[in-house]
């Protein structure tokens, strides 16, 4: 990182259900002084264990894991807050002479750590004012006046990006474009990345099988306990893959099979978006498996070891 010391580190990336966690654990078992750092936007929530495929307590006891259980499920965890936690963890690992394997599939969180992105802060009151304006074209004209560089980088119809750029510019007094090229840049001095890749149909089947296994592991009971809390789930936690569908079933809105089918469909769509996200990063060194990520475990561990030095 730019401000804090960084240990020898490498990131292991891939879509959901591609076997990343098991491969990272295998690497930690095989390589000395390695600790695992989760880069998953849902594993930060306490009490959301089964449905996020969080490492078990036995695995955590065997190998140190970081950036799990950071916030309560009724709280939000922004990318900037997560990045700050990651910086502190990596500085601690460096001070102790340890090595880090980052593992996860949340693309923006991963890039925030790998590239130490300069992330703008949030300004909720400004954002609420902007959202009250229904005319996206008018917002884009306002952005053109405020920050023409940022306005030129986005489509006039992309309301989400326009509102975000205005929120940052108006709230911070600093142009959104001044935060650098961000995701469009792929600097060579970033944390190296190794990817595990399975054919899309295999990932699709693994997603369905994992949900079935999670039901056997108590997923419904976990969601029921979350719904029984005295505070509602945060917007992000409540929309988590599988949790939204299981909650709908527990509220009597759909039967279990329909909820499961929708969870599988939504997670498969998410995996497609992940593939597109990671495909844009030319720095990732991919290791391809045909059916089972275990078949390339040795090759992945070797790649990780080489990147760690």
Automatic annotation (TrEMBL):
Print the keywords alphabetically: ATP-binding, Magnesium, Nucleotide-binding, Transferase, tRNA processing
Q: Where is this site: Interaction with substrate tRNA?
A: 106, 127
GO MF: ATP binding; tRNA dimethylallyltransferase activity
Provide the assembly information.
Monomer.
Cofactor(s) in the UniProt record:
Mg(2+)
Ligand binding (substrate):
16-21
User: Which residues of the sequence carry a binding annotation for ATP?
Assistant: 14-21
Would you tell me the protein name for this molecule? tRNA dimethylallyltransferase
Region of interest: Interaction with substrate tRNA: 40-43
Q: Which InterPro entries match?
A: Dimethylallyltransferase, IPT, P-loop_NTPase
Catalysed reactions, semicolon-separated? adenosine(37) in tRNA + dimethylallyl diphosphate = N(6)-dimethylallyladenosine(37) in tRNA + diphosphate
Query: What does this protein do, in the record's words?
Result: Catalyzes the transfer of a dimethylallyl group onto the adenine at position 37 in tRNAs that read codons beginning with uridine, leading to the formation of N6-(dimethylallyl)adenosine (i(6)A).
Question: Gene for this protein?
Answer: miaA
The Gene Ontology biological process annotation of the record reads: tRNA modification
Enzyme group, top EC level? transferase
Q: Which family does it belong to?
A: Belongs to the IPP transferase family.
Identify the EC number(s). 2.5.1.75
Report which residue ranges the record marks as coiled coil: none
């Amino acid at each position: 990182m730019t401000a804090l010391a960084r240990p020898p580190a490498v990131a292991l990336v891939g879509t959901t259900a591609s076997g990343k966690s098991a491969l990272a654990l295998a690497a930690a078992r095989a390589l000395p002084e390695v600790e695992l750092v989760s880069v998953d936007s849902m594993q930060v929530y306490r009490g959301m264990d089964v449905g996020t495929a969080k490492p078990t307590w036995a695995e955590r006891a065997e190998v140190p894991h970081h950036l799990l259980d950071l916030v309560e499920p009724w709280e939000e965890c922004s990318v900037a807050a997560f990045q700050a936690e990651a910086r502190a963890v990596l500085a601690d690992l460096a001070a102790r002479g340890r090595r880090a394997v980052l593992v996860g599939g949340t693309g923006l969180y991963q890039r925030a750590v790998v590239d130490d992105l300069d992330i703008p802060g949030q300004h909720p009151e400004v954002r609420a004012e902007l959202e009250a304006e229904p005319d996206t074209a008018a917002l884009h004209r306002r952005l053109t006046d405020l920050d023409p560089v940022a306005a030129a980088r986005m489509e006039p119809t992309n309301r989400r990006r326009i509102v975000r750029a205005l929120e940052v510019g108006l709230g911070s007094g600093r142009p959104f474009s001044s935060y650098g090229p961000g995701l469009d840049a792929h600097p060579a001095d970033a944390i190296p990345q190794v990817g595990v890749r399975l054919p899309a149909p295999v990932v699709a089947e693994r997603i369905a099988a994992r949900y079935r296994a999670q039901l056997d592991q108590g997923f419904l009971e976990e969601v029921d306990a979350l719904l029984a809390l005295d505070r509602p789930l945060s917007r992000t936690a409540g929309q988590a893959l599988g949790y939204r569908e299981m909650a709908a079933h527990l509220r009597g809105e759909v039967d279990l099979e329909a909820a499961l089918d929708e969870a599988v469909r939504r997670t498969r769509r998410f995996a497609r978006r992940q593939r597109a996200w990671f495909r844009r990063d030319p720095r990732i060194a991919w290791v391809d498996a045909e059916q089972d990520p275990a078949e390339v475990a040795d090759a992945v561990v070797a790649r990780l070891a080489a990147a760690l030095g």
